[in-house]
Amino acid sequence: MLHVERLSESNRDSFFNLHCDRHEAGFCFCAAWDVESWDDWEERSAEENRAIREQLYTDGIYDGFLAFVDGEPDPVAWIQAAPRDSIPRLSRQFNLSQDSGAWAIGCLLIRPDWRGKGIARQMLTNVIDEISYSGASRIEAFPRSGEGHPAHELWNGPLALYLSLGFEVVQEGEPRCVVALEL
Length: 183
Known about the structure:
single chain, alpha+beta, Aminopeptidase, 5 helices, 7 strands, globular
């Protein structure tokens, strides 16, 4: 059974247990939207990205959800989700106006051994419910445009998944589009 938890002080170690080399996720630490630009992303080190995540924790920022499956010691999935205006780089990159009611899904990571088992759909459905309870009026995501991309390029989640859950493309773009779900 899948259990989704908000990221918090009490489960932050679980975040690092998922974001590690063992699960093919030991580089980013979901820090991509917290660097100034993509210009030096490839030159960054895992340690630099982990330091960003640690600073977010120090600042009291717990910007996502973890999914656990009964019997698994480590989480099987992660979704970065937060009020969109708290992630200014998203607004800059996609030329979005401020919107205090909009939430953003910046990243969707499924552990490799759990991909293709419906975890993304289950988790995203739970996270949509959680976000709607928070009073948000809209959820936006930024999936890779087109189809047939390898898993490592789908770190925002696949477009087809969002469309199947009622999101609509509101801004075309390459390599990523903007999809939104009105709540």
